[in-house]
Amino acid sequence: WLEFPYSFLGDVPSVSEPHMSISHFAALLSLLFVLVLRAQAGDVAPCTGEGARYGDFKCNHDQTHRVCAELLDAAGTPEEWGPKRDFWAITNQTAFKWDADIRNPPNPGRGWCICMWATATLIKEVGCDNVHLECASTDVPYILQKFTDGGVDLAPAKVCLQKKCPTQAATVTKAASFLEQPNGFRSSQQFRSLQGSL
User: Fold this and answer.
1) How far is Cα 193 from Cα 198, in angstroms, rounded to an integer?
2) Residue 131 and residue 163: Cα distance in Å, rounded?
3) Measured between alpha carbons, how far is residue 108 from residues 114, 135, 155 in Å?
4) In this predicted model, what pLDDT tens digit does every residue of 126-146 receive, in sequence order?
5) Is 84 helix (H, G, I), strand (E, B) or coil?
6) How far apart are CA 21 and CA 115, in angstroms?
7) What count of Cα atoms within 13 Å lies in the side-chain half-sphere of residue 156?
8) Which spans in 41-127 are helix H?
9) How far apart are CA 194 and CA 198, in angstroms?
10) pLDDT for 40-80, tens place per residue?
11) CA-CA distances (angstroms) from residue 187 to 35, 131, 196?
């Protein structure tokens, strides 16, 4: 038996008992998968267009810039997110428009790492269908674990990410469904199914 606090697991056997109950073992497995999901958060592709502030052009370095949004269209002009409005207009950042930085070296492209709060604001303003994201470059697992950012409710962003980025959201959603069960993993088949998705 491992000797560290398990108070969150309820009544546990004493260290003198040779075997752990199935329910306690399931709870430990649930905890393990939570830790695995947290470790996975941050494993993203570079966001093409992002500046050199992070060195590797990835949206996984601070607590808020976790979304790779397409701010420019294929022609390199500001992308419209709804009727004749771009990212900078919707988020009241027109005075700081940095579209030239996105187009130019060292990482020319269309995207930029934007704040989670800005993403939620955009989604609420223009609707999920009008939001342009690079899913492989967005830290979906990290965002799905959060509730607010900068005082903004992230619920709309989380729902939209699950719709737009189903592959990246699948592991988190699947694990959550297992963790929400009263008795944790009910069978070895469920365990192997979730294990295979990680």
Assistant:
1) 9
2) 11
3) 16, 18, 31
4) 999 999 999 999 999 999 999
5) coil
6) 44
7) 18
8) 87-90, 99-103, 116-126
9) 7
10) 455 899 999 999 999 999 999 999 999 999 999 999 999 99
11) 20, 40, 14
